[in-house]
Amino acid sequence: KLAAEIDALAKEIEEYEIIQSIPGVGEKIAATIISEIGEIERFNHPKKLVAFAGIDPSVYSSGRFTASVNRITKRGSSRLRQALFMAVQCGIRDARKQKTSEEIIPRNKKLREFYDKKREEGKPFRVAIIACANKLLHWIYALLKRKEAFQNAV
């Protein structure tokens, strides 16, 4: 009953359709992203939205020392991070239910290309996923600011 009520409330919001136009982002993930972000006008730059989500890298340096291992800050919304993580995994996953060939046909081609590029650079799985989540959040920021669907804009 609660899930049906959430869906009904989300369908009244115009941003819901915009975020759902991104391949790999479903109803629940879109509703979570909208509820966590709130009004996009609160952020005047996409990097501020990324910092709000807590997926920006923490940089540690002291004197001449600069750390080589930089983790994400995790200072923002954990629900937004979880939703973005799931959206990225759904986006880069194969779109077919049964494999007929070894070719990968991703739901979100641009996100999969970016993920593959990061993996070829030697990045571990989670580092590549967080980089994709960062990219996805930049796309969401641009789409919500312009009020356009994903296929038309990016």
Secondary-structure blueprint of this entry?
Blueprint: H1 2-11, H2 14-20, H3 27-37, H4 46-53, E1 61-62, E2 65-66, H5 78-92, H6 109-120, H7 125-146, H8 150-153
Antiparallel strand pairs: 1-2
Helix pairs in contact: 2-3, 3-5, 4-7, 5-7, 6-7
Describe the structure.
The protein is mainly α and 154 residues long. The chain has one domain (2-153). 58% of the residues lie in helices and 3% in strands. It has helices at residues 2-11, 14-20, 27-37, 46-53, 78-92, 109-120, 125-146, 150-153; strands at residues 61-62, 65-66. Strands 1-2 form a two-stranded antiparallel sheet. It is globular, with a radius of gyration of 17 Å. The mean pLDDT is 90.
Summed up, what is this model?
The protein is built from eight helices and two strands.
Features:
154 residues, mainly alpha, two-stranded antiparallel sheet, 8 helices, 2 strands
Q: What's the β-strand tally?
A: 2
User: From the helix content, strand content and strand pairing, which structural class follows?
Assistant: mainly alpha
Q: What is the residue-averaged pLDDT?
A: 90
The termini sit apart by 36 Å
| Uncertain stretches of 5 or more adjacent residues | none
Count of structural domains: 1
Radius of gyration: 17 Å
In percent terms, what proportion of residues is strand? under 5%
